[in-house]
Amino acid sequence: MSEKVQLEKIFLFALCGMFVAFGINIGAYAFLYSSGVLGAVLLVREYVRGNITVSWKFFIPIVFFAYVAITPGHLFKDLPIADMFSAAFFAGAAGCYFFKDKMPSILFLLPLALSAHFLARVVASLAFDYPLIETTGYVGSLTLSYSHHNVVGVLASFGIFSLISFPHPQPTIRRIGYALMAILGIAILLTVGRSTYLGLAAALGLFALLRSWKLAVGGMVVAIAVGAMALPFMAPDAQKRITGMVLAPHKEPNFQNRLPTWSIGIAGFKESPLFGNGLRTFETYSRSYLDKHYLEIKKNNPYALDKAFAHPHNSYIAIIYGWGIVGFIFIFLILALSLSTTKKENKLLILYCTTFILAFGLFDVRFLSRDGALFFLFPIGMAVINSNAILINSLKMK
């Protein structure tokens, strides 16, 4: 067996392991980085051997990763974010190049593992009185073994989008995928993650426009019905959180106390509009800002908190605060490049993920975490491969 084939098999193992690791929350960082490094090495080898030609388009994301790594607004502060971004991107790009025909099976592993993780927790809750809903500084919600309920929401949403975009060619496994989507939908409901609800609703609206409004409406009706049945069994704080989102979202205290955080992010952007400040500086900056202006903020907003958040709870503000106008332009160009993909499956996945992010990002940020990097950059890597950024010179794709 040639060294090249051996390396490809190791990469395939790492790629499959990455999705399982994310689904069960064990070893996710190790598999993400190993997949990214192996994917980059394999793509470079293809280029050196003359099997692919790389156009200037492929370097747009790479230059962005270098920009984030350098972090002109605060040198090297966001290097860990750049590492996660580049690893997810190269894993997606190389995965789509080498294993195009296997992608439905590879992507299937995330919803399968995450559903198993959720069902195992349900069984533990019923058999051993292990808490299914936990409160870890937030409202009572489903967090499983992750640090935040939004991690469950983002990973479950990515699992649903991948099942929709890359239906498995085997009918039996495809039907299992439908069951997994239902399980993940219930898990998302129990996260009480309003940003996830909003992102998923936006993606469902896009599905209605692109694919089938009948299926979309049916899915929405089922989701509302399940939610209505589950609501009485939820904790009072969770009930209040959900009903407040529907009845009067602009008056909800959690919404109101984010307004000052947004203003802090905008203030930081105004201080360094071109290159930003580095996204990972926000907590320190907001603490300093609150120390100087908290009494004034509290006077104007009784719901304001004297708390420094890790991010401004808005992806748009996070981008311009962290990476400035230059970073915003980079992200716009990368999305435009990925949406020019010629493959229907890749286009659908990137459209669902982008629509989710645009709505989810109104109230939350996932760029700082590995799940956010996977959600955002892995499908972009897949799409870029089929956007004429890489031209295949060999007779057929590997």
TrEMBL record:
The UniProt entry, under Pfam families, shows: Wzy_C
| InterPro entries attached to this UniProt entry | O-antigen_ligase-rel_domated, WaaL-like
Which keywords, in A-to-Z order, does the entry hold? Membrane, Transmembrane, Transmembrane helix
Q: Where in the cell is it found?
A: Membrane
Provide the topology term for how it sits in the membrane: Multi-pass membrane protein
Q: Which residues cross the membrane?
A: 12-44, 56-75, 81-99, 106-128, 148-166, 178-209, 215-235, 316-337, 349-367, 374-395
Q: Which GO terms describe its cellular component?
A: membrane
Main subcellular localisation: membrane
Q: Answer yes or no on keyword Transmembrane helix.
A: yes
Report the residue ranges that make up the O-antigen ligase-related domain in this protein: 180-332
User: What is the protein name stated in its UniProt record?
Assistant: O-antigen polymerase
Q: Which organism is it from?
A: Desulfomicrobium baculatum (strain DSM 4028 / VKM B-1378 / X) (Desulfovibrio baculatus)
